UniProtKB/TrEMBL annotation:
SUPFAM superfamilies: SurE-like. The keyword ATP-binding does not apply. It comes from Halonotius pteroides. Residues 6-193 form the Survival protein SurE-like phosphatase/nucleotidase domain. Keywords: Cytoplasm, Hydrolase, Metal-binding, Nucleotide-binding. This is 5'-nucleotidase SurE. It is an enzyme of class 3 (hydrolase). Its cofactor is a divalent metal cation.
């Protein structure tokens, strides 16, 4: 197989160290063009703009817009013939079903799926308490993510992985500049459905919104079921969740009856008028 054509994007910005790590790694196995935000666009979800400006960058193109803008601009105009979209590496985990719609990193992969292009979103969970932002400041700190992503690009694009999944959401644990990336297991997972968002009014007219999940992970007491993304990363392993877009639907007999009843009632009302 010829080297895959890869569109690389993210939400931390085109100059982030995690992005550079993936660009360098993927360039060894494919032809990579960067179409990524010019600045930090974290947690913007699937926000889309009406128009975006872009500038040349040493890796490709810097887009003044969101990750979804980058995918649309890339697949719709700049490089429409790519084989794969990779989004990342995000500094911070994107774990759990409730996070998927918020994450700019994951949203870029979802957008690619609507174009019919397979995608991989990649994030690195950093256990560092309130100081996690001060960690992982060098491209070498993303060695685990770079190796795992490169492996998946080489393997998943030659097998039938994307016949059953539209995109893969990958989360890796942070390992301080270690050389043991090959010894870290990779597990196929499902998004954890655990949810601990809460709100507390602080005196006046302000309400603080808090996610209790991260406090739990910092305490090292994650009790999510085995096989979920969060539990896998907390156990020091690489999580790969095969997901679909758009959201899947299921046959629902009770709802079918309700919908049919509405039609009948409408017809009955019309007959009496």
């Amino acid at each position: 197989m010829d080297a895959p054509q890869i569109l690389l994007t993210n939400d931390d910005g085109i100059d982030s160290v995690g992005f550079r790590a993936l660009y360098e790694g993927l360039s060894a196995v494919g032809d990579v063009v960067a179409v990524a935000p010019a600045d930090d666009q974290s947690a913007v979800g699937r926000t889309v703009s009406e128009a975006v400006e872009f500038a040349d960058h040493e890796y490709g193109y810097a887009i003044h817009g969101t990750p979804v803008d980058c995918v649309i601009a890339g697949l719709g105009s700049i490089c429409p013939d790519v084989d794969l979209v990779v989004s990342g590496c995000n500094k911070g985990g994107n774990l759990g079903g409730y996070v998927l719609g918020r994450s700019g990193t994951v949203s870029a992969a979802v957008e690619a799926a609507f174009f019919g292009v397979p995608a991989i979103s990649v994030s690195m969970y950093i256990e560092g308490g309130d100081n996690w932002q001060s960690l992982a400041t060098e491209a070498s700190d993303f060695a685990t993510a770079r190796e795992a992503t490169t492996y998946l690009v080489e393997q998943a694009t030659t097998e039938s992985v994307f016949a059953a999944a539209d995109y893969l959401n990958v989360n890796v644990p942070f390992h301080d500049n270690t050389g043991v990336t090959g010894s870290i297991p990779m597990r196929v997972t499902r998004p954890s459905m655990r949810y601990e968002m809460g709100a507390e009014q602080n005196g006046g007219r302000e309400i603080e919104l808090r996610d209790g999940i991260w406090e739990t992970m910092r305490g090292g007491s994650v009790d999510d079921p085995i096989g979920t993304d969060r539990r896998t990363v907390a156990d020091g392993e690489i999580s790969v969740s095969p997901l679909t877009a758009p959201h899947s639907t299921k046959q629902h007999d009770a709802l079918d009856e309700i919908a049919a009843g509405y039609t009948s009632n409408t017809e009955a009302t019309a007959d009496t008028e």
